[in-house]
Specification:
alpha/beta; Rossmann fold
Length: 253
């Protein structure tokens, strides 16, 4: 009997937290399964991945497909529906007259992973407003989590748009008002370790909290510059671990 397969879809997939996390989990807990990276250049290749891997039970979804995958799914969890982005897919198969059919359901565990890892750091009297850097799929889950934690959220993008600030809008007055800054963009990810979001770091204070969804390197330039100004800093490693554990619950329920 073929062992169960789980995996990750995205492009590119140079450094995968999920592959390492699940490989170690399967070995540690003696689980007869394997985790594969499926680097696909077009989201429509998802069908090939599903059909060519008959033992595939579940997928993680990363950049740039957290939103693009939505039209290919048969259903969404309430959280994924509300957020408008998916990072976990449950694959359910059925056989009828020798023909294989499958149902794909999308979930969002980025939300709970981020919320649980950020909440202990918040000081409600200080951390009332957050700047959210980036507007991709991950940022949607983060925005909902921040709002549910009681923070007013302001998104920041490289290009102007409705209800958006651009990086050139950020100044001392903005940073005085917004004490939480979350980087939900890939800026600063290995190997581009000398890059960081273009914010006025000189205006950061010990009252600021900087959270970077990037986990490789463990201390991005964004976090280092914040720490140098006395800010509280945290990377995305705990978020990833928490969302992965939630994904496993979904796949094996």
């Amino acid at each position: 009997m073929a062992k169960d397969i789980y995996g990750l879809i995205g492009f590119p997939l140079k450094h995968s937290f999920s592959a390492r996390f699940f490989a170690e989990k399967f070995e540690r807990e003696n689980i007869d399964a394997e985790y594969r990276n499926f680097e696909i250049e077009d989201i429509l290749q998802l069908r090939e991945v599903i059909e060519q891997n008959r033992s595939l039970k579940g997928l993680n979804v990363t950049i740039p497909y957290k939103e693009r995958v939505l039209p290919l799914l048969d259903g969404l969890s309430p959280e994924a529906q509300r957020i408008g982005a998916v990072n976990v897919i449950r694959v359910e198969r059925a056989s009828s007259s020798g023909a294989q059919s499958y149902r794909l359901t999308g979930y969002n565990t980025d939300y709970v992973g981020f919320k649980q890892s950020l909440e202990p750091l918040l000081e409600k009297s200080v951390h009332r407003k957050a700047l959210l850097l980036g507007t991709g799929g991950a940022s949607k889950a983060v925005a909902h989590a921040l709002a549910d934690l009681g923070l007013k959220v302001q998104s920041v993008s490289r290009t102007a748009g409705k209800d958006l600030l651009t990086y050139s809008d950020l100044n001392d007055r903005v940073l005085e008002e917004y004490k939480v800054i979350v980087n939900a963009s890939p800026v600063g990810t290995f190997p581009q370790v000398n890059n960081c979001p273009d914010i006025p770091y000189q205006n950061l204070t010990p009252h600021h909290l900087l959270y970077d969804l990037v986990y490789n390197p463990a201390e991005t330039l964004f976090l280092k510059k914040g720490k140098d100004r006395g800010a509280t800093v945290k990377n995305g490693a705990e978020m990833l671990e928490r969302q992965a554990l939630e994904a496993w619950k979904i796949w094996t329920a």
